[in-house]
């Protein structure tokens, strides 16, 4: 296989599933894994975006397919895992990434309407899909990466539900690492800083202009004074999934540009 732009081919013949792989960090990770030889499964609820992502990977010479899943629905998760099992005899990589973010300060109760959806997708859904994919992961061993967040460490006014979920994944990652080590499965987490993804510009009146503004406007809350691109997070994720990280498990790696403290405005 011809070397890619990074000069690495670390995942030849590996099967990788990424939840939320149709956009943002998930899509960047799917692209990177496919470029390094993996057969990528994009598990997402957005069929249009997922199919577009699959087509782009295939056009670039990679292998990819789409499996529809609603992480808020246990039966949908179980069905998705069954579909994967019908197509593949083993799974080597799982990236738990899909999430939604609501908002609301504790005092005004604005969080009440988002608590159920956020936790069912970003906490329970991740555990359920991991549980039902575990038989495939056990076949040949492999690696899992869970997406935490800077918010899980710093906390932010109006974002306590999302941040509490991301904090929970720091602990859950260690639990998974302990429970799955006997199967040859390593489990780590990545805690991104301020990443420019569709979550932040997708609903703007002019998404392209908003994306450009976010990428080019300096920020004060980290040493590097800029926001991160999803590809930079994908690089850390793929490192942890690779044999280059063979003696790393139960860890959370911060990819935040040297963030130094809480920023109420996220800048």
Concise structural overview:
The protein has 267 residues and is an alpha/beta fold. The chain has helices spanning 24-35, 47-59, 74-87, 112-140, 151-154, 160-180, 198-201, 207-216, 230-241, and strands at residues 15-19, 39-44, 63-68, 93-96, 142-147, 185-192, 252-255.
Report the count of strand segments. 7
Structural class, by secondary structure, is alpha/beta
Mean residue pLDDT: 92
Largest sheet: 7 strands, parallel
Report the C-alpha radius of gyration, rounded: 18 Å
Q: How many helices in DSSP terms? A: 9
Across the major sheet, the strand order is 3-2-1-4-5-6-7
Order of helices and strands: EHEHEHEHEHHEHHHE
Gross morphology is globular
Residue stretches low in confidence (pLDDT < 50, at least 5 long) are 262-266
Distance between the termini: 42 Å
Roughly how much helix do the residues carry, as a percent range?
40-55%
Beta-strand portion reads 5-15%
How would the blueprint of this fold be written?
Layout: E1 15-19, H1 24-35, E2 39-44, H2 47-59, E3 63-68, H3 74-87, E4 93-96, H4 112-140, E5 142-147, H5 151-154, H6 160-180, E6 185-192, H7 198-201, H8 207-216, H9 230-241, E7 252-255
Parallel strand pairs: 1-2, 1-4, 2-3, 4-5, 5-6, 6-7
